[in-house]
Amino acid sequence: MTVRAAWLQSTGQTREDTRLALAALLTPNGQSAAETPLRSRPGIVPGGLVLTGTSAMQCSIGTGRAVIQGVDTAQGPYMLAVTAPETLTVPDGDPQYGRIDLIELAVLDDAYDRSGSTGAVIRLVKGTPAAAPVAPPSGPGSAFPLYTVSVPAGTSAGTGGVQWTSPGVVTTLHYPMTALGGIIPTSGFKGAYVGQYRDVSGLLQRWDGTTWVSYAKPIGGIAPHGTMTTGAYTGQYRDNAGVLQRWDGSAWQYAEGTAKILLAVTQWTADQAQSIPSNAWTVITMPKVEGDDAGGWNGTDTYVVPRTGWWRISAQITWANDAQTGMRGARVMAGGVGQSRMTWLTPAGNGAISVGGQGLIKLTAGTPVQLAGFHNHTAAIKTLGGSGYACTLTAEWLKA
């Protein structure tokens, strides 16, 4: 029969029936579509089967439990328990070359592997000495690797034996197993089913059928700063260095109303007045900083836009009454280019003249913004500060 059951029939239940039925409690292997339904993910119960060097050429493998999937899918998984430490002896090293030995947990089942034996063992598979040694292949039966041991040339009890605790001598190959629904540690395995979870250095990830997705990405989760470059769905949020952003399906946009950015700088005292030559747009210096949320002002005459989006820019230049002829102007510069929508001109008059206004402009992060002044009188004219007059530039980020 192709439908197997455990402890259903009064007689006739086989060991294979039992293994395959109990596999429903284990995590599927999931490395291919063909493996997922019947093959189980092997591994050890965490904390067991610890290797300890006990003498120069001997080690012990401690107690523990494990699951080994049979080579043949029809074998099902074998559930094993090591109830007392197992001692292994490492053969002496080759006189010329080093080698790598393999320690593995194995199931021999003669009905499938024709090994002539039926049982479970912890065994050492001796490697081949070579100038660049590699671990040997597994022995007969269905095996699960536990450790490799590096055996340098000439190693023996007389020369000090295997340096069990030295770096690079013992390499751990085993990884944990979990029951179905358990959270597995990161081990390079693909997920076996949608909704499976794994632990990645203390953070949860979920298998979505194609890839492992960090826990912050599911519906409603706000991804921590630096964990996500592309949103998983429209309407998802992330923390971008303390500022909330929303994924619109193609790009991250700043969440409306969550983070204003303001700039306000002025030239407002008589000693800060600036002499402006005629017939040239000249950048205005404004040393007084009244507000700079993002720290984008360079201290003199330039604001580096800290965030892409729509900005409201307000600007004003007050001209001294040095002459009563010609025009007086103010202009916002973005990236060194005068913005026509934020250019203002007015004729001179008998007294101080203030020129300016405000406008909306979409700017890219990193763009320099400046305020420039212009007049066409025949000689230089000063800006005016003090006595209630000032030159000023303000900027307010509105939306992405």
Can you describe what's shown?
This protein is an all-beta fold. It has 3 domains: 158 residues; 70 residues, no CATH class; 138 residues, Jelly Rolls (Sandwich). Helices cover 3% and strands 41% of the residues. It is built from 2 helices and 30 strands. A 5-stranded antiparallel β-sheet has the order 22-19-30-24-27, with no helix packed on it. Strands 21, 23, 25, 26 and 28 form a 5-stranded antiparallel β-sheet that branches. A hairpin with a 2-residue loop joins strand 16 and strand 17. 29% of the residues are buried.
Provide a concise account of the structure shown.
With 400 residues, this protein is mostly beta strands. The protein has helices spanning 15-22, 110-113; strands at 43-44, 51-55, 58-61, 64-69, 77-82, 86-89, 99-109, 118-125, 142-151, 170-172, 184-185, 197-200, 203-207, 212-214, 222-223, 237-240, 243-247, 252-254, 262-267, 275-276, 282-283, 288-292, 303-304, 309-319, 327-334, 337-347, 353-363, 368-375, 381-382, 391-399.
Describe how the helices and strands are arranged.
Elements: H1 15-22, E1 43-44, E2 51-55, E3 58-61, E4 64-69, E5 77-82, E6 86-89, E7 99-109, H2 110-113, E8 118-125, E9 142-151, E10 170-172, E11 184-185, E12 197-200, E13 203-207, E14 212-214, E15 222-223, E16 237-240, E17 243-247, E18 252-254, E19 262-267, E20 275-276, E21 282-283, E22 288-292, E23 303-304, E24 309-319, E25 327-334, E26 337-347, E27 353-363, E28 368-375, E29 381-382, E30 391-399
Parallel strand pairs: 11-12, 15-16
Antiparallel strand pairs: 1-4, 2-3, 3-6, 4-5, 7-8, 7-9, 9-10, 12-13, 13-14, 16-17, 17-18, 19-22, 19-30, 20-29, 21-28, 23-28, 24-27, 24-30, 25-26, 25-28
